[in-house]
Model the fold of this input.
Amino acid sequence: VHVLDDRPSGTGYLTAAANGHDGAWAVPPNRLGRRALELAREEIGGLDGRALAARVLSAPLPTGVGNRVRAAVLRASGMQVGAGTSVLGAIRVTGGSRASTRLTIGRQCFVNVGCHFDATVGIAIGDRVSIGQHVLMTTSSHDFALAGGRGGPLLHAPIRVEDGAWIAARAVLLPGVTVGQGAVVSAGAVVTRSVPAHTMVGGVPAKPIRDLPT
Ligand SMILES: CC(C)(COP(=O)(O)OP(=O)(O)OC[C@H]1O[C@@H](n2cnc3c(N)ncnc32)[C@H](O)[C@@H]1OP(=O)(O)O)[C@@H](O)C(=O)NCCC(=O)NCCS
Done:
């Protein structure tokens, strides 16, 4: 038996059999229809129509061109993006079919290319926030209590980035953190704890580097 996955549907995980594993089906034939429906739900249940529409509509724009138009397209597709915000490339929003409604980007922000917002719960970005290339903000983690499958049920906690902060390239913000007003998260940092206002942090895990003048 290769179908051992007891994770709730909709998490985006497939069973071994569904992944094309060479094991035999563990589901009796009279349950195949229901299983097929479950698989279909797993495959497309996380579709976020707004995020998809925004990606498709802004796809013709070359990277770094039409940055405010791209922000306007995100806004028009139902995301909360403040006036004067520039978005340099397609953003990736994951976290279920309503993920893009849980992402808020304030006014006069700057979002560089390749950013990924995993918004299973809220991600709130204030005003005048700069976000560098390939930043990842994720609100989800796994319960790792089960020895047989450490990536267990999803756990969620919101993220907040306050006004005037700078999140530098390839930084990762983990669930539940707040980056305080005017703080700087250095390139490549993994932020596991909230960052006080006007503080520069860096490293893995991110630690204070110095206080910044106000
Ligand atoms: C955060 C940053 C601006 C700091 O610059 P700075 O003030 O000139 O910092 P310094 O070079 O004086 O370094 C200060 C200390 O922080 C450390 N540090 C700097 N950047 C770091 C980083 N990304 N990760 C970990 N530590 C870092 C330095 O090693 C130094 O430590 P030390 O005092 O023990 O030697 C810069 O390092 C950085 O990360 N820039 C991001 C660039 C980027 O993402 N560009 C994209 C544009 S959106």
In short: The chain has a mean pLDDT of 86. The radius of gyration is 20 Å. The CA atoms of residues 40 and 115 lie 28 Å apart.
